[in-house]
Design brief:
Length: 185
C-alpha cells in the first residue's frame, strides 16, 4: 500500500491522467479520489477545489515542457534545437493519438473558463511558442514570431488530427514534413 505522504502526488497523477482523457469539466473530485485510491474527504486536505488541482497540473505540464525544451536547447545550433523538438511527438505518438496533446488539449478547454484557469490556458502554449521564437531569432529570421507560430500551430494541428482520426501515422507524416521545412530554412 502506498505511503500516506504520497497522497498528493497520487491525486495529481490521477487528475492529470483523467483530465487529459476525459476533460477538466467532466472529471470530478470523486473520480480523482477513486482513481488515486485516496478517500474523497482527504482530497480537500491537499486541494480546496478542482481548480486548485488544475492549477497544479498546469504547473506540472509547464515544468515538463520546460525540461524538454532545456534538453532540446543542449544542441549547439538553433535549427538543431528545433529539430530535436520534433523527436518528442514521435516518442509519444500513441498518447497523442489516444488523448491529444497534453498542452493543447488542456489549453483549449481552459480557454473557455474564467479567471485564473483561462489565464493558465495561454501559459501552456506560450512556453513552447516563446522558446521556438527564440530559436528562430537566433537563426536571424526577421519573421521569427510568424515562424514560431507556424511551427507550434503545425504541431498542435498534428495532435488534433491524429487524435480525431485515431491514426498515429499522422504524427510521422507531419513530423517528417516539418523536419524538411525546418531544414530548408
Amino acid at each position: 500500500m502506498p505511503r500516506t505522504s504520497d497522497k498528493r502526488e497520487r491525486l495529481l497523477r490521477s487528475a492529470d491522467r483523467l483530465i487529459l482523457s476525459q476533460g477538466f469539466r467532466q472529471t470530478t473530485l470523486a473520480d480523482i479520489a477513486e482513481d488515486s485510491d485516496v478517500p474523497l474527504g482527504n482530497v480537500y486536505y491537499y486541494f480546496k477545489t478542482k481548480e486548485d488541482i488544475c492549477k497544479s497540473i498546469v504547473e506540472t505540464r509547464i515544468e515538463s515542457m520546460q525540461a524538454l525544451l532545456k534538453k532540446c536547447s543542449e544542441a549547439d545550433a538553433p535549427r538543431t534545437r528545433l529539430l530535436a523538438l520534433l523527436d518528442y511527438p514521435l516518442t509519444v505518438r500513441n498518447e497523442l493519438t489516444d488523448t491529444g496533446c497534453p498542452l493543447g488539449t488542456l489549453s483549449y478547454e481552459l480557454s473557455r473558463s474564467e479567471g485564473v484557469l483561462s489565464q493558465s490556458s495561454a501559459q501552456l502554449i506560450e512556453v513552447v511558442l516563446d522558446w521556438a521564437r527564440q530559436q528562430f531569432q537566433a537563426m536571424d529570421k526577421p519573421d521569427a514570431d510568424e515562424l514560431a507560430l507556424q511551427l507550434i500551430s503545425t504541431l498542435q494541428g498534428m495532435s488534433l488530427v491524429a487524435n480525431a482520426t485515431g491514426d498515429p501515422s499522422v504524427v510521422d507524416k507531419v513530423v517528417s514534413r516539418t523536419r524538411s521545412w525546418l531544414e530548408s530554412l
